[in-house]
Amino acid sequence: MSGAGIRSWQAIQTEVMRRIHAREWPPGHTIPNEVDLAREFGCARATVNRALQSLADAGLLERRRKAGTRVALHPVGKATVDIPVIRQEIEERGLRYGYQLIARNIDIPPPRLGGKNAALHVTALHTADGAPYVFEDRWINTDTVPGALDQPFDRISANEWLVTTAPYTHGDIGFSAQPANATQSALLDARANAPVFVIDRTTWDGEDTVTTVTLTYAPGYRIHTIIGTGPVAF
Amino acid sequence: MSGAGIRSWQAIQTEVMRRIHAREWPPGHTIPNEVDLAREFGCARATVNRALQSLADAGLLERRRKAGTRVALHPVGKATVDIPVIRQEIEERGLRYGYQLIARNIDIPPPRLGGKNAALHVTALHTADGAPYVFEDRWINTDTVPGALDQPFDRISANEWLVTTAPYTHGDIGFSAQPANATQSALLDARANAPVFVIDRTTWDGEDTVTTVTLTYAPGYRIHTIIGTGPVAF
DNA sequence: TAGTGGTCTAGACCACCTG
DNA sequence: AGGTGGTCTAGACCACTAG
Fold first, then answer.
1. Does A88 sit within 8 Å of B176, measured CB to CB?
2. What pLDDT, in 10s, does the model give residues B158-210?
3. Hey, are the CB atoms on A74 and B84 less than 8 Å from each other?
4. 8 Å CB contact of B74 and A84
5. Using CA atoms, how far apart are residues A112 and A212, in angstroms rounded to an integer?
6. How far is B179 from chain A (nearest CA, A)?
């Protein structure tokens, strides 16, 4: 029964998923330890480890030293959303990218952004085949990214320039639905208070903020992605 | 210089990120191969491999056999969005969860869902501290999940029941902003055409669809998550 | 076709945690 | 205290692909 040998970690992953799937290992069940599985599959423990770790990353398994590996009770689905450069996002849809700077000045950020220090405020419109696509409203920390002061942002968007210039260590991001305000509805060819999709994002480089941006998309925008990353199906 | 030895894969990861960060290895640069790095760091190649693979997963590096490993030109940020059970999502916010079934019947799904066969149609409202939270409009494929026909869904939501009962291999998911229709605005205590956040999701088990659901959230809902998963900062 | 990453092995030691 | 996963090693072979 165990003579055949399942030797690749992907094959082991598939077999483990099959057993979970088939309820041989129901939710909450503690599965055999790595040594036993390695013996059963006829492979090295490291190979089993690789397979199980991958499934744990995907949220299908819960692993703890000494306690062992259990099938997750509530397999939390995880969707990975890519955050591309806007120009790329548009061009990948086969559309012609356009960019238009609206304003660029030094100012004091609003209190909700926490800053008392002046920062670079850039607003711009990105278009796809001439139609409004997304409105970018951005604050750049000029202490963290002094080079931004030399950039006019009239041809290259701050969005694009920062990606290749200002690395960050971490960030946070939010998605929401909001009514378009006067500025947004005018720029995006939308009715007043029309529902628009909004992404707000702040990035840090260590302790220092790099940039905070609010992206307001024209009506009809939809983020679409896939659950079950690559080989990790569950 | 190389005598010290960087022996853990996390330390190697940190060091590689530092070099990218410091522009010692600028975007597009091909970094040394694994054997050379292993020699420099005084560790085994497998350890370097683990570190670089992790960074490649995070989108910071691009790796190809024979071509080597390059620093990504456009480090695509990736945000991982958890898709929890609604009850858990509400309770984790410290709110009291409530559930109310609205309708449950067998019907022919609308053509955009591709089905000609009858399916189980369930609509329900989830509440947080008594306030409307999200409206669930779901179709369940009774060929794939026959057990659903025995479930009344009057106490346990389809959302929750399916998670522990109907495994899936993959799915797709979309996020958008939409105006609330009459039904939604009434149930969610929202004005007509108020902007609402909508998640639509379809899951498959192999070739067969499992369920398709549209979740319409009450105004003010916001998805929030972090960029730079865990130890992988970039 | 040769160089690079991808994977596997057999063994070892360590860190963590439950009982 | 002992069992389990986490990691590292030194070496090997394989798979892919750029030149």
1. no
2. 999 998 888 888 899 999 999 999 999 999 999 999 999 999 999 998 889 99
3. yes
4. yes
5. 11
6. 6
Q: Phi/psi at B101 (nearest 5 deg)? A: -75, 135
* Residue spans of beta strands (DSSP E) within A85-143: 97-107, 119-128, 131-140
Calpha distance A48→A63 (Å, rounded): 13
Distance of alpha carbon A42 from its chain centroid, rounded? 38
In one-letter notation, the amino acid at residue B182 is: A
Element (H, E) at B131: strand B131-140
If pLDDT is split at 50, 70 and 90, which confidence band does A229 have?
A: low
Does residue A205 contact residue A168 with C-beta atoms inside 8 Å? yes
- pTM (predicted TM-score): 0.90
**Residue B37 CA from chain centroid, whole number:** 34
In a 10 Å sphere around its CB, with 0-12 CB exposed, 13-18 middle and 19+ buried, how is residue B230 labelled? Answer: exposed
Element (H, E) at A88: helix A86-92
Which nucleotides of strand D come closer than 7 angstroms to any CB of the protein?
A: 2-12, 15-19
From CA A164, how far away is CA A161, in angstroms rounded? Answer: 6
Report the amino acid identity of residue B81. V
Angle between helices B34-41 and B9-21 (to 10 degrees): 110
A1's tokens? 């029964």
For residue B9, the one-letter residue type is W
Domains defined along chain A, listed by start = 9-71 (1.10.10.10), 86-217 (3.40.1410.10)
Q: Closest residue to D15 by CA to C1' distance?
A: B65
> CB contacts < 8 Å between A and B, how many?
158
Within 10 angstroms of residue A120's Cβ, the number of other Cβ atoms is 22
Distance CA(A193)–CA(A210), nearest Å, equals: 31
CB atoms within 10 A of CB B35: 10
CA angle B118, B175, B60 (to 5 degrees): 125
